[in-house]
Each structure stands twice: as structure tokens, then as C-alpha cells.
Specification:
Blueprint: E1 13-18, H1 26-34, H2 40-51, E2 60-72, E3 75-86, E4 91-92, H3 93-107, H4 111-132, E5 140-141, H5 147-162, E6 169-173, E7 176-177, E8 182-185, E9 188-191, H6 195-204, E10 208-209, H7 220-229, E11 232-233, E12 240-249, E13 260-268, E14 274-285, H8 290-301, E15 306-315, E16 321-329, H9 334-345, E17 351-359, E18 361-371, E19 374-384, E20 390-395, H10 397-407, H11 411-427
Parallel strand pairs: 1-6, 6-11, 7-10
Antiparallel strand pairs: 1-13, 2-3, 4-5, 8-9, 12-13, 14-16, 14-17, 15-16, 18-19, 19-20
Helix pairs in contact: 1-5, 1-7, 3-4, 3-5, 4-5, 4-6, 4-7, 6-7, 8-9, 10-11
Length: 436
Amino acid sequence: MPQGLIPEEAVKRLLVVDCQVSGISGDMILGALLDLYEDEGRIRKAIETLESIKDCIKSCGRLKVSVEETTREGIRAKSVKVEFEEDTRSRTGVELKETVTRCAEHLGLSTEARELALRTIDTLLEAESKVHGEPVERVHLHEMGSTDTIVDVVGAAYLLDDLNLLKDTMVYSTPVSVGGGTMRFSHGVTSAPAPATLEIVRSRRFPIVGGPVDRELATPTGVAVLVNLVDEVAPFYPSMKPQRVGYGAGRMNIEGVPNILRVILGEPVGGALIPDEVYVLETNLDDVTGESLGYLMDRLLRCDGVRDVSLIPMFTKKGRPGNIVKVIADRGGVEEAVRLLMEETGTLGVRFYRCKRLILARELIEVEVEVEGLRETALVKVSRDRDGRVIQVKPEYEDARRIALKTGRPLRSIIRSLTEEAMRRLEKGVEPPSRM
């Protein structure tokens, strides 16, 4: 979630997509999500709902979605089968997006679910465009343009929406297994993973593992949904309290390897505090002027994804004074911050590592106070724990400074007045509107 003036929402649920052994496909996603349902009645209703999109798909004469219990190497899982009849061999990218949009509207998907479905289609089209060297609008999809792709993409978005997993949920994934060997598709024989699958993981820098069998294990549709759903990729599960586990079966029985996708739904561990992860970047400097350091700090703080910058005085070899520049950033801000550090300081290397932390949720609210006969407004940062309890109230310095200079009152007096007014409003349950 972007920082700054956007409130940090408490993460209420964790979802782990475990695809490191048998990969991922659209039907495996549907099976695993349906397996998270605790009520068979809801499963039947979900299947009927997915079948209802038939009238939104041009050239589709029949559509049947079935789910059954099966086993893969002794592990129980849900297998989803999509049967259809259609009068077309391929669809253009434009036709595919239009169809998915109609289906999303028909199902009444939330904004988050609709955007997930459309992002997934965009990812598929961009991969095909790159592989075939054609503009996106002219790409013709064969296997990926069929009705079952539409059902997989729209179905995944619908089920995630129905399970309430697109809000207040942090989604983790393991690296995805892509299999190996060769495979046949509409353009002939190629190595696994398919060119479109490889392009998707390349463009998103999504980690993969080969094997463990000579089969295609990760399909373009499955991977496209995955990269647009997941917030963080890690080889190990996060700290969590598992609540439900869903197993989705792949089509093949693979000897010695359970061909299943496993998804785990749980809640974060950490009591009233919110788990979070940041990246810490560091470099040692002993030949940079104070003016250059000040300029560097200002530029770093303006980078998207950078949360904080600090200088730590130190002594280097031969007793030379220097500084450690320490940057705290989101994953997306690491590369730009490293580039700036190198360009502005001439450093030859930057250390960085992922760091776990526990935080409070923060939001900025607007408070109005009267000072020396003037009505002034200021932003106040309110910090809360996961249960919504207010832990700290702190006026923003620049707003407090502006009011102090304008009215001639001491800064500490202005800060106290703003804090008291914010607390009074919060205690009454009347929160001033946030300034976004």
C-alpha cells in the first residue's frame, strides 16, 4: 500500500499460495479456493454463478462447470472441470477484455475483483505480444483465448471476492514450480515453461524453480492470476495461525508428486500490532561533503517507496570521520534508492536486507483550532493498534510551525492545542475528515 497520506489498514487475514512443488493453473486455483468453502451449499451456488456467465461469452453454446473430490498421490483435493462448446478457434485481445468486462458486470464483482480480472488479462496479452512481436491490440489468442481461460480468470476473481480475500488480506506465495521437458502447443513443440509463462514471470521478476518432473506445471493463465494477486514472495511461510487449507487438483496424476495447489488461510501472529516488512539499505561514506549529503537525503525522501532516511556518524579506517547512510524503503523503492545512492555519492556498493517489524496503523486527520482569534487547520497523525485503539496522537510539524509563525504563539503551545483538540474529537467518536 502506498505510504504518505494514505492510511495503513490493519491486515486481518493472510493467504499463502503454495505452488513450489506442482506449479499452478487456472483450474487448480478454482479447486483450491472452492476447497476453502466450509458449506457445500455455497460451493453449489458458486458453480451455478460461474455457469451463468455463458450468455456473456459470444460464440459459447454450452458451458458446464463441475467440481468433485479426488486424490493426487493420496492427498484429497477438489478437481474442477470446465466443459464448453464454442464456434471460434481464437479471440483477439480486445474481444477477450470485452468479454471479461461483461462477465464482471454480470457477476457484480467488486472494484478489487474486477481490476484483478482485467489486470490478469492485460498480463496475458502483454506476454503474448512480447512473444509474438505483435501489438497488443492485434494479438490473436488460441489456447488462452478459449472459454475455459475466461472462466478461470473471472472465476478466480469471483471466488476471492466471495471469500472476502481481496480486502484487508496479505497474500504470500512461494516460488512457482514450472516443471521441465518439452510440451506441444498451437505453435509446435517448445520447452517448459511455455514462452508466455516465461515472459510473465520475467516481466514481474517472479521467482521460479524447475522440475520436479518433465511436465508443464505452470500455465500462463495460472501464473498471470498469481503475479497479479500476490503481495510478497518468500520461500517460507509467514508467521501465522492457519485456519483453513484448500487443495486444488491438477489434471494429471504424476507418480511420486502430489499434483496439487495448496492455499492456506490464516490470521497474523502478533497480538494488537500489525506485522510488516521493509527493506533496509546502508552504505558507508567518508569522502562526501555535508552539502551533498543534505541534497542526497532530500532526493531520497522524494523517491516513491522510501519511508525514512538517516545519517549515522562513524569513524572509518585510519581514523577518518564518515557517515553511514541508512534508508528504509518498500520493496518497490529499493532499486531507485540504490541508484540514487550510487549516482550522488559515488559509492561502489550498497548493502540491503529485508527486515520484519511490528507497526501501528496510521492515518492523518484534519483538526481545526482557534488561535489568537484565527481559525486554523492542521493535519494530525493518529496511530492505532489492530483493535482500533488510539495509541498516539501527533500534529504534523510543518502545519504546527505554520500556525506558530502566523500567530506568534510558541510552537509547543500550538502542538499542545492541536493534540488536545484531536483527542477531544476522537474521544467523542467524531473524527475530522482525512485530507488525502
